[in-house]
Amino acid sequence: MTTSPTPIPAPPSWPHCGHGADAADPIGCRGIHVSSHGACLAHLSDTDRDAYLNSLAAGSSVDHSGTPFTPALLSALLEAVRDSTGIPVLGPATFADAQFSGVAAFERTRFSGHAQFKGTQFLGEAGFEGAEFSADARFDRAQFSDAASFGGALFGFADFEGAEFFGDVRFGETQFSGTARFAGVKFSAVVLFSGAQFDDHAVFDRARFAGFTRFDGAQFLGPGRFAYTRFSEDAHFHGVQFAQDALFMSSQFSGRADFLNARFAGTTWFDRGRFSGEFIVSAASFSGGAWFDQAWFAKTARFVETQFEGRARFPWAWFEGRAEFRQTRFSGSVVFGGAKFSMDAQFAMAEFGASGRWGPVVCDRTLNLSGAVFEMPVTMEIAASQLLCQRTRWDSTATLRLRYATVDLTDAVLSAPVAVTAHPVEFVANGGRPDETKLSSRPAEVQVMSVQGVDAAHLVLTDTDLTDCQFSGAFHLDQLRLEGRTTFAFTPTGWHRNGIRPVHWTRRRALAEEHHWRAQSAGQPQTPPGQTPSKRKWRPGPHHPDPGLTPDPEDVAAAYRQLRKAFEDGKNEPGAADFYYGECEMRRHDRTSTTRSERGLLWAYWLLSGYGLRASRALGWLAASMLVTLVLLMGFGLPQGSPKQQATGTVPAGGGKVTLTIDKEDPKNPSGERFTGKRFDKALSVTLNSVVFRSSGQDLTTAGTYIEMTSRLLEPALLALAVLAVRGRIKR
Fold it and tell me: pTM surpassing 0.70?
């Protein structure tokens, strides 16, 4: 197989020197001829070179395209064009494709015409500190093999497109009064643009920053473009100012991207940006719109104390690390539709000044809205493991549609109706469904953990789980609206021992505070973290077993009383009945505000009928009372036999009206066999008539009369309590 011959390089477009041409390099030196000479400046004879340099003056036009320069040759050229102040001044200057083998010292050089360094190679250090370019300066496709410094330089139009910098680069305090083009530039080492000023367009599209980069304090008075730009190391934009639009769309930051105190006056695009390191925009200001559509944040994204005065867009953004928006101000509309937070998302003390739709968002861990302020109506759609709304303030109406979340509303301020509802199906955002994969292993139900300190007059809870919700310290609980399927904790199941006495708790709804108090009173151990509380025990509270931080029966009774009213207003009589039971239970155990006599009555009420709510208990006592009445009547109440009646009278002589006197024997106390079938029938008749408050008409002994009177008083009351309990369960 034959190989293709090496292509011969094309000669330059200008008449070139050709010095050193041979078979291997038929072109030789590519330096342009010095006028009226057949060689470039580097290969002129000493006499010709001196003559040429002596012909130059400050502001002279020079063209040394392709010429190889040594430091000495460059120094001689610049020496020839110095003005009276000692500053080198060049008119139109062309160094296209030239080579500078050593230090290229252009410090403080003034280029009064265009400056052409297109394709130039700087093999040593390149120094342009303090240089002035009055016209166009073109460094496109130039190569800087060592350090390059343009600190304090003044540019008009500057074109570095396609240039390569292999050493450190300094543009500190540089001013660009015209367009600055750095599109496609490759920076292999440290790059410093600190304090640089761009008066017109600044274009860094598709640039590659391989080393540490600083734009601290830079000012972009025209549009700044960094589209598709890559930053391989840390990039600092501390205090940078963009007076117009800033475009970072599809840019990639492999290290830390730091925009601390940055100011964005126009629209800012970071859409589809990829941030592999930390992204810091703390204390920044976005006066126009801020677009982060489909941006990806691998580590912490910090927007602390940032001001978004225009529209802030984060649709379908993915935060794999922590997202911090603490004390951030959103004055315009906010779009988070489809955003995904894999770690915690912090919006504590953030302010939202516009109405609209917030979400849907998915947070695999905790979404913290504590202390946040929503000034306008808002609809929030959130799927999260935990939602913290402690001291959150809603100044207008709000609807929170949630999935999977445990919600803490402690000390939230509700100035208008706020509805918290469980969303039954996955959210939809712009035709797509946010990823809920990591949350889908748990039920999609919403569990409210606390409304302590909340004025519940404006709160609506729909289809929520209130098993562990703490109500103590809330206001206007009687005006709380509970809609849909609301779940409360239940009393422990099964039989238990209280000392040697077996105990069985009647199944009913119970507040979390009652669980906490009973668990503390019973001395139960705290449930280990991550373990589901046993249904056979009371659920310990978060401050268990500290009695000072555990609600006492008086507080729990007040909560039961107000929530019972809420159930009654909602026509939920069974729920109201359970909470009436709980209220009475707490009053029965309250030794602070409940008197001893009242506790005694409550004990009796509980024992006889479960506060008029346990029909089985009342019927049991009724059956026991009837049995006792039956036995007592058979033993003592029914007489020995039916008393006989005797009529006596006198017949007048000669006939006439006969007057008779009927006497009845007093019932005789029974003797002999008392528990016979006949006596049972009579006793049963008396007992059944007593239940319905009727007299049987049976002859009774004195003891039987008192037994009947007692049963006629007690048994109808027990029957009434049983009927009342049944009614409380079926009434709507």
Answer: yes
